Amino acid sequence: MNKTKIIATINDGTEDEQFLEDLYDRWVRMLRFNFSHGDANKVRHVMSLIANIANRGKHLSTILDTKWIEIRTGKVDQKIQFCKWDQIGLVTDNKDILGEKTLFIDYPYLSEDVQVGQRIEIDSGAFHVRVISKKWNITMVEAENDALIGSNRHVNLPGVRLRLPSLTEKDKTDLLFAIEIGMDFIAASFVRNRQNVIDIREFLDANGGENIRICSKIENQEAIENLDEIILISDGVMVARGDLGIEVPMTSLPMYQRRIVKSCREQWKFVTVATHMLKSMTDAPTPTRAEVSDVFNAVLQKTDTTMLSEETAIGSYKLEAVEAMRDITAEAESSLEYRHPDYESSNISERDKEKKYLIRSALRLAEDLDIEHILLFTKTGRLARFAAAYRPSHMIHAFTGNIQTLRYANILFGINPNLLPIWWNHESNLWSAIEILQRNGTIKTNEKIIAITDIERNGEEIPSLEIIDLKKIKK
Question: How far is Cα 268 from Cα 391, in angstroms, rounded to an integer?
């Protein structure tokens, strides 16, 4: 089993139960629904399929990716050919369009917020222009390359602090839908500061979505500047390299990725590396050498998950892409160094600190005593998150009686979550877990195991670590 999990995007409506089981068997543990192009009826159908295969013990977590506000060009009758050095008027009011070398931009504060000399990216970075002057709602730019631009092209304003709300009306509708159908996570697009996350959290909580966790997408320079506060207030973070690679200098992207992954580990939050990981496999049966290296390096940085987008959403080689991701991950994990560095404790309780250090002791004991299996019992998933943050060298078998906790632990590094049908006391839970692992061939009757749980003494739960020799103990 790979310790680094895979997220697969699905959207094209061709999914069936067998396909979802095939994804699960290839180590996909989360399905992403991109609501920039989402179809509620298709999502409902897929959620029913997920429930069906969960009845067979194959649990897939789910994440809804919000659209937020996309700044775009206006509609044109036909595509416009721009040439390098062309001077182009960017206007924010259709009434003021003058001449053929003009584009409408639907960000009303454009001329106020950009500066002369600043770069603007049009059509997802395919067309580079630079501001040469501005007056009222007309911003004059100079083209830095040739480009053929059609209607509604995506616009990025690198370095601009966008004056836009945390949630659009569409986002609110999509969040209500996520609550209704039982999504596990929200991927919050273009989070810029902690208040954006707070706004989303408050909206979810006010509408019955208390159990939905927030994964903040880091997609622009402002988010980088506020990274630590965003990580602190979020459940996890996604390195959304598509827009981030346009919003910041491309040469800085690898450095930012490394920093984000490291910062998430230090604050014991889960992290995903996403976008263009195996993009060529949308149309090709094998990845490029550069893509293999990219995935390999993300695993070496110890991300919790890697994500596939077009590859599994609309690609011609969906399962092949997942297999490639799985195999590259396995090879990279064989080269990992496991040192279990400590991480931030200032924002957790004294009891949680005890649990955290108990887990670190368990990892070291397992290595020193050559014990292969560690069992962990958790109600909320917090203990599993503490264990994953140490990036364990041994797979942690986490047990819970809560299906939502299982789906959270599903995406954590090195955690193999299991559902206990009956959650009782320590002894009962322990032996039920041992029976499950023996029945599926994971552990043998003559092995030693380590178990981490809470035991009750005088009405109080106390964190406990046990080394259990199975051949000497009978139920």
Answer: 10
Q: What is the DSSP letter of 72?
A: B
Do 450 and 362 meet the contact criterion of CB atoms below 8 Å apart? yes
Length of the chain: 475
The residue type found at 151 is S
Q: Which of 146, 353, 158 is nearest to 245 (CA)?
A: 158
Helix, strand, coil share of the chain (percent; to 5): 35, 25, 40
| d(C-alpha 72, C-alpha 69), whole Å | 9
Distances (CA, A) of 182 to 11, 66, 121, 361, 387: 18, 15, 37, 36, 26
CA trace torsion 18, 23, 27, 31 (10° rounding): -120
pLDDT exceeds 70 at position 98:
no
Q: DSSP secondary-structure letter at 282?
A: G
Q: Cα-flanking dihedrals φ and ψ of residue 131, to 5°?
A: -70, 130
How many angstroms separate the CA atoms of 44 and 432, rounded? 34
Position 100 scores a pLDDT of 73
Q: Which amino acid is at 449?
A: I
User: Phi and psi for 167 in degrees, rounded to 5?
Assistant: -130, 130
Q: Write b or e for each residue in 61-94: b if 16 or more Cβ atoms lie within 10 A of its Cβ, otherwise e.
A: bbbbbbbbbebbbbebeeebebeeebebbbbbee
DSSP state of 281: G
Q: Which two tokens stand for residue 14?
A: 């061709």
CA torsion angle for 89, 93, 97, 102 (degrees, to 10)? 30
Residue 474: the pLDDT is: 59
The C-alpha atoms of residue 372 and residue 27 are separated, in whole angstroms, by: 20
How many Cβ atoms are within 10 Å of 109's Cβ, its own excluded? 14
What percent of the chain shows pLDDT beyond 70?
98
Distance CA 396, CA 384 (A): 8
pLDDT tens for 390-420 read 999 989 999 999 999 999 999 999 999 999 9
Question: In a 3-state reduction of DSSP, which class is residue 137?
Answer: coil
Instruction: Return d(Cα 60, Cα 9) in angstroms, integer.
Output: 12
Alpha-helical (H) ranges within 130-252 are 169-181, 194-206, 221-225, 227-233, 241-247
Asked whether the beta carbons of 314 and 15 are under 8 A apart, the reply is no
Q: What is the CA radius of gyration of the chain?
A: 24
Q: 345 pLDDT exceeds 90?
A: no
pLDDT confidence tier of residue 447, bands split at 50, 70 and 90: very high
Cα–Cα distance between 471 and 426 in angstroms, integer? Answer: 20
The neighbouring-strand residues paired with 279 are: none
Name 375's bridge partners: 397, 451
Helix axes 17-25, 318-333, angle to 10 degrees: 20
